[in-house]
Amino acid sequence: MAKLIIIGAGASGLSAASRLVEKGFDPAKITILEAENRIGGRILTVPHGSSLIELGAQWVHGHEGNVVHPLAAAAGEIRTDIHTLESTGYADDVEMAYRDGRKITPVQLNEFKKILQSIYDDSKKELAQWDKSLGEYFESKFGEHLNRGSFTTMNRSTALDLLDWAHRSQNIEDGSDNWNDTSGVGSLEYHECEGDYTTVWKRGYSVLFDILMKNVPKTSNGLKLSLSDRIQLNSPVNLIRWNSAPSSGVQVVCSDKTYYADMVLITCSLGVLKDRADKLFTPLLPEKKRRAIEALGFGTVNKIFLEFRKPWWTSEWGGVNFITDPSKATGEWEDRVLGFSTVRGQPNLLISWVTGSAARQFETRSEDEVLMKCSTMLRTAVGTDFAYEEPTRVIRSLWQSNPHFCGSYSFRSKKSIELDVCPSDLAEPVIDSNGSARLFFAGEATHDHRYSTVHAAVETGWREADRIVEHVKETNFTAKL
User: Fold this and answer.
1) Which 3 state secondary structure label does DSSP give 112?
2) 297-353 pLDDT, tens per residue?
3) Which residues in the chain land under pLDDT 50?
4) Per-residue pLDDT, 456
5) What 8-state DSSP symbol labels residue 453?
6) Which pLDDT does position 227 carry in this prediction?
7) Domains identified in the chain and CATH numbers
8) Nearest 10 degrees: CA dihedral of 98, 136, 170, 352?
9) Cα separations in angstroms, 284 against 243, 260, 280, 281, 470
10) Strands of 258-261's sheet, edge to edge?
11) Dihedral sign computed on CA atoms, order 383, 385, 390, 395
């Protein structure tokens, strides 16, 4: 029987495992190696008080064509979260303020949003012929509006400061350090799933794994198979020997054990592959695969939660987003913090986001520094509107400095267009010198059109499971299918 090792027990790895067993692959021949002390990957649901918070993936992005949505809906887990709008700064109850307390008026904000939306609308048609970055497109179009006097409620510098906030917001959506790193035409390759983008899981995104594990069928004698028995936690992989002719198979070396298999499905993040693919695989991966790993974009997005003894804000207040005055920028991570908004189900918490180089810098700072600087920014931006109280605690994600992730999610970089690379190049199986497929790749970064999402991770896990099943059928493997 064919033996398979799956590297990674996140959404992609566990989706693949459950699909394989569903299609008749013997679960006893599957080993899942997980570097962390938990399953879930970049889904990290954490209990907090009487509810929970998401330190990783948060939303089900649309429902039409989203393979995760029917799983959540069938389990009664669907809930609309209006706070999605608040955290993006586009809800009516979110203020915009400079970090020195100066406020953007509702009239100014409305004018800015209308002009920005018109640029977004035009981009859907114009980016296909744009050979520069996404940022250069927005800056060019915004400049045209400035030059022809489209802004009547604010001066040029204020409008540019608001554009800088939109830049930070776009970076959070894309995962890039800078929107000038994101390809303009490449960004059109991302296909949105139609439907509500404010959908969350009632009991947290981690419920997805309960569903995937429960979908494993019973054996012929009625016994329930268990994928959890096939998972080895705390098992980071140090080396993958994949072309050791004349012997066949793959060796996967961990610190305490070496595993042997006919095939390996790799579902670790693109960030991990960027960090150490040249050391992880022997021999080196094919040049085309290495070029894909190098050229596709992968960035860091972190969340910051501030906890307060009690809410000092009213139920009508959605939050405040920070505008940075370039003349007062410090060059530190706090310049790029988006702002703070309320958190559904957590009345004493406010959430913010930070991305790119600022997010990486932020991870090196102490919790005391983060707490103090975030509180100072928030207190000043709120001004005298509320009787502000100091936060008691900060909770944050640290995706870049964790060597098992090395960041958050992928995007279509300018470099990927220049080198003619796409996610399907990353997804392509690697064939050994005997002509047999040995290495398979899944994960959000391997999806041509839905990269950066959980549904891409699940969908590509299923894709590779189907590919492995077909490969086994077409070869001399005697897997029980």
Assistant:
1) helix
2) 999 999 999 999 999 999 999 999 999 988 888 889 999 999 999 998 899 999 999
3) 84-90, 220-221, 479-481
4) 98
5) S
6) 83
7) 4-41+202-297+416-474 (3.50.50.60), 45-66+76-87+299-396 (3.90.660), 107-187 (no CATH)
8) -30
9) 10, 19, 8, 5, 26
10) 258-261, 250-254, 237-241, 281-282
11) negative
* pLDDT digit string, tens, across residues 414-462: 999 999 999 999 999 999 988 899 999 999 999 999 999 999 999 999 9
pLDDT of residue 218: 54
User: Are the C-beta atoms of 299 and 407 separated by less than 8 Å?
Assistant: yes
Outline where 33-155 has alpha helix (H). Answer: 68-74, 83-88, 106-126, 134-147
DSSP state letter for 28: G
Which has the closest alpha carbon to 240: 467, 474, 8, 475?
A: 8
Answering whether pTM is above 0.90, one says yes
Backbone angles phi, psi at 155, to 5 degrees: -85, 175
Given a contact cutoff of 8 angstroms between Cβ atoms, the answer to whether 167 and 33 are in contact is no
**Helices 106-126, 134-147: crossing angle, 10 deg rounding:** 130
Report pLDDT for 1: 64
Candidates 26, 15, 6, 32; CA nearest to 481 is: 26
Tokens of 214: 């429960």
Cα–Cα distance for residue pair 442/465, rounded to 1 Å = 9
317 phi/psi in degrees, rounded to 5 = -85, 125
pLDDT at 80: 74
Examine residue 246 and say whether the peptide bond preceding it is cis (omega within 30 degrees of 0): yes
Angle at 132 between CA 128 and CA 134, to 5 degrees: 75
346 sits in which H/E element: strand 346-355
